[in-house]
Every structure is written in structure tokens, then in C-alpha cells.
Amino acid sequence: KGKYNTKRITSITINVLVLLVTVTLIISGLINSRLIGEMLGIKEDVLPREIHTTSAYWFLVLMSIHLGMHWRMVMAEMRKMFGVSGGGNLRPILLRCAAASIAAYGIKASLERDLYAKLIAYFSFDFWNTDGSVLAVVIYLVQYLSLIGVSTGLPYYVLRWTQKRDNLAHL
User: Fold this and answer.
1) Which of 14, 57, 136, 158 is spaced 20 to 30 A from 150 at the CA atom?
2) Rg (CA), the chain
């Protein structure tokens, strides 16, 4: 029911893609497991691992986009949970600066981690090169959190822009 506008079609498309990637992750994970793989007579091979890893990267990006499409609702619940009401001009400015910083670092991290190559299965294996350093682990995790941040922030701000544009068109 209802109108199939661009936002709704995009949301349905993202949800279907998340479902397909999730099913792919489950199936490839079962094939990669020694127990199930042996029961099915599937020898350990690189292809199922490659499919599984590539699907995991797509899942990360698609779920982040999904989160970004619902970010306004997430923020409303957070404000309600922490009792934040109203607000001045400073909080939105600080939050937007934080979002811009996370997005900038997320773009840098996507280039450093070669995310594009992993999404097209050109090269999908990644490893924890920590050299026993806690700092290296923290950097690794911060890079992936910023990838989530940029993949969440971009759809959120694109949706805000398109909604404002559509509202202005109706005036």
C-alpha cells in the first residue's frame, strides 16, 4: 500500500540485497565449514572463501546504507533514551563536524583497505597485521568503523537533501 516513491523503491532494493547477501553468507559459511563441506563432499577450495569474504564486505556496506536510511529514527530514539530535548545551534554543528570527520576518514580508510577491490572480488582477503601492537588493532577497528560511518552518513544526507528538494518543489 502507498506510493512507490524513490525512497521506498531504494529501501526495498537495499532490503532485498541485504537478504540475498545474508543468504549467500550463510550458504558459503556452511560450505566453508569443514563439517558441512565434508558431509556434502565439497573439498576445501578458495572460491567459497572468496564468495564468503566478498559477501561479508557487501553486507557491511549494505547494512550501513540501510542504517543511514533510518538514521533519523535511530537519532530520535537515542534522544529519547538519553532525555535530550531541544538544543541550541552548537550541538548540530558539532555533530555535523564529527560526521564530516568520520566520513573523511572513512573515505581514506576505504582507499587504504582497497574496499572497491574487495567488493568486486578482485582481492578480498584481509588480515590483522597487528605485529602484536594494540595500536594496530585499534587503527584496524577505527578504519572499519569509519567505513560504516561514511556508508551510513552518505545515504542519510542524500535522503535529507532529496526530501528538502521535494518539499521546496511543492511550495
Assistant:
1) 136
2) 20
Q: CB pairs under 8 A, 24+ apart, for 87-93?
A: none
What pTM was computed for the model? 0.83
In angstroms, the CA 145 to CA 153 distance is: 12
Amino acid type, 85:
S
Q: Compute the distance between CA of residue 163 and CA of residue 161 in angstroms, rounded to an integer.
A: 5
C-alpha of 5 from chain center: 23
Whole-number Cα distances in Å, 106 to 46, 70, 129: 29, 20, 19
Contact 72, 156 (CB under 8 A): yes
Euclidean distance between CA atoms 23 and 27, whole angstroms: 6
Strands (E), the chain: none
Determine whether 102 is exposed, middle or buried from the number of CB atoms within 10 Å of its CB (0-12, 13-18, 19+): buried
**Average pLDDT over every residue of 146-158:** 93
